[in-house]
Amino acid sequence: MTTWILLSLFLIGVVITEHPPLIKSDKLIEYAPQASTEPTLGDQSNENLENNVTRLLDKLIASHDRRIRPNYGGPPIEVNITAHVTTISAVSEVSMDYTLDLYLRQIWKDPRLAWESDVEDSLTIGIDMVKTIWTPDTFFPNEKKSFFHEATSHNSFLRIDSHGNVLRSIRLTVTANCPMSLHTFPLDRQECALEVESYGYSTKDIIYHWHGANAVTIDENVHLAHFTIGEHYHIERTISLSTGNYSRLTAYFMFKRNIGFYLIQIYFPSSLIVVISWVSFWLNREAVQARVAIGVTTVLTMTTLMTSTNASLPKVSYVKSLDVFLGVCFFIVFASLLEYAAIGYLMKRNRSVPAASPVQYYETGDGVLKREASRKKSRNRRDSSMKNYQNNNIHHRPSDGHVDQRIPLLSMVPMPPIPFKPQNGAWGKVRPAQVDLFSRFAFPIFFVIFHIIYWTYYINQ
Ligand SMILES: *[C@@H]1O[C@H](CO)[C@@H](O)[C@H](O)[C@H]1NC(C)=O
Ligand SMILES: *[C@@H]1O[C@H](CO)[C@@H](O)[C@H](O)[C@H]1NC(C)=O
Ligand SMILES: *[C@@H]1O[C@H](CO)[C@@H](O)[C@H](O)[C@H]1NC(C)=O
C-alpha cells in the first residue's frame, strides 16, 4: 500500500513539476496580443487614415473610365519610360536573340487621378488597382517571348501622387530578337535593341519618351561569360505602319565578344596542330610511316576541329573570320601532307635516273653479276633497255644454267639512253632534300606572316 501511495505521490509530483513550463509558454503566447492592443489612441488614427484612403480611392475609381485615355480629345498623352536591367543572359548567335531581366517603369499623368493633398502625397497601391484605371498598352515589337514574374505575387506596383502622376513598375523577362552579323566572329561586337511601342495608340494618342538621360540603366552586377557589356544608348522615333504612325523607343546594348575562350579552345590548338605538321619536314625522308601518319593525323584533327567549331554556330552562308583562320590552318596542314607526296615522287624519280656517267657500257660474260645487280635496282630500266636491244637486233644466246639471259661475249654495246622526259622548269633538278629544307623555313614564315596580317586586319575592323 505504502509503495502505491509513494508511487502516486511521485507521479503527482512529476505532473506538478512538468506543468510550469506549459503555463509559461501559454503566457508567452498571450503576451503578444496584449501588447498590441495596449495603444488604443494611435489605432484609431490609423483606422481614420485607412478609411480616408479607402474613401479617396473609391472616389477616384468611381469617376474613372478606364476605357478612355487621359486628355481624351486633347493633345497626346506623354508616357515616359525607364528601364533598369538586372540580368542579361543567353546572348545567342544560334537563335539570334538575347534575354533581359528588367524593371520596366512607365510614368504618365492622369489628371482624373489627382486629389486634394490633405491625406497623403503619394499612394503605393496593390496591383489590383491596375484593373480599374487606364494604363498604356505598351509592348516590345522585337520580342520573341516574355513573361511576368509571379513569385510570390505579381511583381509590379502602382504609385499615384496627388497631382495624378502614375508610376507603374513591372518586372519582366524579355527575350528579344537581335540579328547579328558574324563576319568578324569571334572578334565581333554585337548591338542588340529593345524596342518599346504602344500596340494600339498612334502618335495622336500616345507619345513615348525616355525619362531623362539616364532612362536606361544596367545593374553593375550584370556580367556575361562570353561577352563584355559595352555602352548603351537610347533613341526616340516615329515609325509609319499601315495602321498609322507610332511612337517607338529603342534602347541599344553593345556586346563585345570575349576572345579568350576562342583563343584557348580554337586558335591555340589549331596553331599547334599546324606546328605539329611541320615535324614531318625534320624527319628522315625514308620514314614513310612516320611522315604519312603525321600528315594524315593533322589533316583529320583539323577537319574535326573545323566541324566541331561550326556545329555550335548558325549555318551562315558567308565566311566568318574564324573560318578564314581554320581554313588557312587546314590549307597549311594539307600542304605539308602534299609536300611529302612531292618528296616521295622526287625520290622515286631520282632512284630511276642513274646519276653516274651519261653513257654506260654493258659488260659481257664476267659482268653478268653486275648486270644482275642493276636489274634488281630497276625493273623499268631493264624492260626499256631490253626492248632497245631487241630493236637493235641483238640476239641473246640461250643461257646455260645459272644465268637466264646472257649477253653475247665481246659485244660492248653502249647503253641506249633511257626515254626519260626531263621535267620542264626547276623540277628537273630539284632534289628531295632541297624541298624539305625549303619547307622547313617557308611554312613557318608563311604562317607567321598570316598571323600578323590576320590579327591586324580583324582587330582594326
Ligand atoms: C480623415 O478625413 C477627415 C475629414 O474627412 C479629417 O478630419 C481627418 O483628419 C482625416 N484623417 C487623417 C488621419 O488624415
Ligand atoms: C517625361 O520626360 C521628359 C524628359 O524626357 C520630361 O520633360 C517630361 O516632363 C516627362 N513627363 C512626365 C509625365 O514625367
Ligand atoms: C505619318 O507621318 C507622315 C510624316 O512623317 C505623314 O505624311 C503621314 O500622313 C502620317 N500618317 C498618319 C496616318 O498620320
UniProtKB/TrEMBL annotation:
Domain Neurotransmitter-gated ion-channel transmembrane: 266-397
Pfam families: Neur_chan_LBD, Neur_chan_memb
Keywords on record: Cell membrane, Chloride, Chloride channel, Disulfide bond, Glycoprotein, Ion channel, Ion transport, Ligand-gated ion channel, Membrane, Postsynaptic cell membrane, Receptor, Signal, Synapse, Transmembrane, Transmembrane helix, Transport
Membrane-spanning segments: 259-283, 292-313, 325-347, 437-457
Annotated segments matching region Disordered: 370-402
UniProt-annotated location(s): Postsynaptic cell membrane
Gene Ontology biological process terms from the UniProt entry: chloride transmembrane transport; synaptic transmission, GABAergic
Domain Neurotransmitter-gated ion-channel ligand-binding: residue ranges: 54-258
GO terms assigned for molecular function: chloride channel activity; extracellular ligand-gated monoatomic ion channel activity; GABA-A receptor activity
InterPro entries hit by this protein: GABAA/Glycine_rcpt (IPR006028), GABAAa_rcpt (IPR001390), Neur_chan_lig-bd (IPR006202), Neur_chan_lig-bd_sf (IPR036734), Neur_channel (IPR006201), Neuro-gated_channel_TM_sf (IPR036719), Neuro_actylchol_rec (IPR038050), Neurotrans-gated_channel_TM (IPR006029)
Similarity comment: Belongs to the ligand-gated ion channel (TC 1.A.9) family. Gamma-aminobutyric acid receptor (TC 1.A.9.5) subfamily.
Protein name as annotated: Gamma-aminobutyric acid receptor subunit beta
Gene: lgc-38
